[in-house]
Batch of 4 targets.
Target 1
Amino acid sequence: MRTAFEAAFGRAPDAVANAPGRVNLLGEHTDYNDGFVLPIAIPQRTEVAIGRAPDGGHRVRSRELDETVRFTLAEPPAAGFGRYVYGCLRVFADRFGGVPASLDIHVESEVPMNVGLSSSAALEVATLRALRRLTGAHFDDVELARLAQRAESEHAGVRCGIMDQMAASLAQPDRALFLDTRSLATRPVFLPRGSALLVLDSGLPRALAGSAYNERRRECEEACRALGVASLRVVARSRDVERLPEPLRRRARHVVSENERVLRAASGAGAEELGALMNASHASLRDDYEVSVPMLDRLVALLATHPRVHGARLTGAGFGGACIALCEAGATRRVAADVMCRYAAAGGQARLLVAEAAA
């Protein structure tokens, strides 16, 4: 990374930092409802190098996109990855009283974009970590996640919850992170012994800001108003939402039942039970929350019915992107080969993203 920064800007960087992408075992669309989530970091990371620059304004170079954007805090970039970096600079300046007037920033990322693995959160957290090292500002990793969420919500146009940024800031690749998104309390949750995670890209790209994500969030807010509660987190049982009109009933039922699934999984579920919870989560996302698509359902079904898979579901906001499966340890690559072959016969084109023995 230091060499790449020097090649792009003609000098060594002043600070370098990185952050991982994440995959979510359970807890989809619950974080912006003050609920519970269970993400885990993936091996792929985003790295950011940053250095003070002599001229006015900021330059951000992306190796993967082969693109450089220029902006000032008064004149943000029009769109694209630069908005996320701009957002980080803005929230950092608001919180700590400014950033250097001119910065050069180089970004390299292994985290696939537009598949639901939180490439944007990895970029935000890595950028804020680099700024922390550059300036010597003092703030912990929870506050860093809060700043990253603000950067995306206020400056990139995505009204995201806190899960992705907390995962990029605190999660580890060898254990899941149980997160209460209301209190931000966390604790590690190890996967069942003898199990492993497999993540496949469905080959169906998704764009979060242009999807029905914001619509679903508005529907949850409408359901809260109809129920007279501050958030769906406080609804204790799925049957308590049955008096709501459609589609609010189904939207709320997904959130409440998904919270129940996360809590059960975090209490020590074995591999078979965790797999069943993942299968139920996908069915709820497909039928009640309506954020899946037919080919993604096909890929999840091929995984879930494989004899060496305990359960599978979409991961991320949906509308395409990736899916995750809980497999028998040592079987992930064989499962991937079998399922990708059958998926291709159905007209799909999947790719292997993560095949890790996690327990």
Target 2
Amino acid sequence: MQKIFRPIPTYEGDFYSDQFIKNPWPHYEKMRSLGPVIYLPKLGNYALTQYAVVQMALRNYKFYSSEQGVSGDKFGSEFLKGNIIASDPPRHGKLRRAMSLPLMPKALNSVQKKIETEAQRLVDQLIEIQSFDGIKDFANHLPLVIVKDLVGLPEFGQDNMLNWAAAAFDILGIQNKRGYSALAKITEMRNFISNGLTQGMVKKGSLTDRLFKLVKDGLLDPELAPFAIRDYIGPSLDTTISATGHLIRLFSQNPNQWDLLRAKPAFCRSAVNEAIRLGSPIRSFSRTTTDNFECFGVSIPKGARVMILFASANRDESIFKKADYFDITRKNSHHLGFGHGIHACMGLHLAQMEMMSLLKAMIPRVRRIETDDPEILLNNTICGFSKLPTRFIT
């Protein structure tokens, strides 16, 4: 008997428009209501909207392949393919083995005290000035101080890490004005890494120094080393900055949750996870189907670009009750904000450590967090704020 597939619903919203980026949540709700698999005519892409289908696709790299690139369009996918998020085994495994060990919890014990000390110093300073920008002065601080030092690039690389990371995330969308304007920055980064960076220029004992040593010892293919360095630069900054901005914004909007955390600091980790679930720093990465495929009753052809909507899946009411509410006691913390499966974020432990250290520094002294309306970050992939007027009330 011939299998009958249901017609695929379409959504006409412009996923990469300024209007969509500034207020995406009603769009995601409408997308989920249409079904787990929809089609976006403006992009010519399929999209996965609900938790179950997104989790399934992230687990199934053989059908939903990353090695053709993960941008929202062909150009971006071709331009940025080959790194850890845009590769499949065996290449992906080689990169992950080379990069992941220093970012595991045991390895991070060596920097935990430094992170906690720097978090305390920052909070003390911001309490003194009272009003500040929650992004530039608060969320940016630990990634720029701690991660820059861990990566260990020379001055030019450190000065440009944040710009390079933001540019990569724009290209990981589509080549609209933001995407095209980012190309020169990524070309600059590639030239810096491939044509001028040597082991003698980087900090001894840093993540980059370790990669050079792996190449020297024959444990990492020299062709892969530039990709690994790029991967340390890109995802380690913007995602944590975005999540930290969402964290303090959510606490300012939900003072009862801040009171609860101050009374029960053991909820720090769940508060961080809840902010990442609601904020979902990565809006979407794409995959390419390797065969004709039936997905939740919809036929997807071989070679189709399929967008994985992390931000939509993380507000799926069938998984998260009262999904739009910030609840630091939420028992189901299995969000997809860090991805899932073989491409799950390697830096998740560092990001959680940074964010938890900030909360722990704030708890004894900050009675209330106040924020004014944020300025939304206009980036093709990152969901966050570019400015967030903030006050710590003691």
Target 3
Amino acid sequence: MVSKVLVALDVTGVPVAVELASRLAEHVAGFKIGLELLTGSGPAAVERVAALGKPVFADVKLHDIPTTVERASANLAAAGARWVSVHASGGGEMIEAAVAGMGGADETGVLAVTVLTSIGEEQLAGIGLRAGIGEQVRLLAILAAAAGAEGVVCAPGEAPVVKEASRDLMVVTPGIRLADGDLHDQRRVMTPGAASSAGADYLVIGRAITASDDPVAVARRISKSLIDVG
């Protein structure tokens, strides 16, 4: 079964992450490892999960000078990361540096984060960006494509904006919630089926799977529903 689901392993400790990932690996496309796990266990978390044979997205959201970003990306690639994330707002040169750090090969890539899914229009204006979320995502997607990013990270509702800006960009969408799920700290969310229909290539799903009573059953159900959507 082909899946679009990247499970967010927002858990404490590598043993817990590996145990959970090993149970889910057969039913999902890959895994996302974020700052919670990386700041506790370091790149070893990427290495251990990648050893299961599924792609790992190191969601570090790098935003620094190009040299630092290139070296950090290289470290994560060496640990086995299939993708690393950077903030697109860091600029084209920084994104290019991340691409270089990942090795520039087909087997690795950079995902450029556009506008965090926890941000609404009011929050965006509060940091001085008044073009609106859709336009901001469009501009950053164009920038990311020009700088060699493999894809972008955006809210599911902006997937069509990204595809219009560049058909070559892969779209990875967090902010996925089940129909009866809690929004937690997200604002711009969609159900898995709606996000897939909007054009998302991969869906990052965390607590809806990992905090459930039966993570494997939920992952299988979501993956099957996405295949049914087409």
Target 4
Amino acid sequence: MENEVRVFIADDHDVVRKGLRYSIEEDSQMKVIGEAANGEAALTMIRQMRPDVVVLDINMPKLDGLGVARELRKQGDETNIVFLTLHADEDLFRAAIELGCRGYLLKDSATQEIVAGLRAAVAGQMYISSALAAKLVRSNAPSPVPLKGAFSTNLTPTERNILRLIAEGKSSKEIGEELSIHYRTVENHRTNICRKLGIEGANALLRYALQNKSGL
């Protein structure tokens, strides 16, 4: 298929790999071309297969996900990397960012957010699990990044409601369940909201939602 995104998955849990493959291949433009259960095997297969995006579990036997990423970067391999982790650990997150990752997903929401994360990665953008992003924004409390324009009155009531739920740190799946809509419909709403507000990236949307929470 033209413009097909070739994905490689490395995780030591078979159930996790199967769940991710199923979610990824629901998207007709994405194909999982290989899997590995440990870091050493992943590194060898990534070198051979040259995928567009690599999904790496941070905690794997033989060589962890960060180790795989370091080896790839040492060789000048700039393959897009999306990390998976069980814990919202800020030190691990910073290490992943230093390695130039494009995504950082918590495993409990990975099957719901993986497609959005992969899409962001191939577009050269960053994607972070909603729950982790909320924690980082609140704990670090950086100076607000200027956004284009004030709160837009062009947003629909549903979009305003989704923004409010984003500000509460809820994932697309949780928002979908609360609003009785499919999580991918929520992702589409996120894209439309960003377009209307003139902002880019999952973090920017969360930051905007938090800064404007009182107006939602």
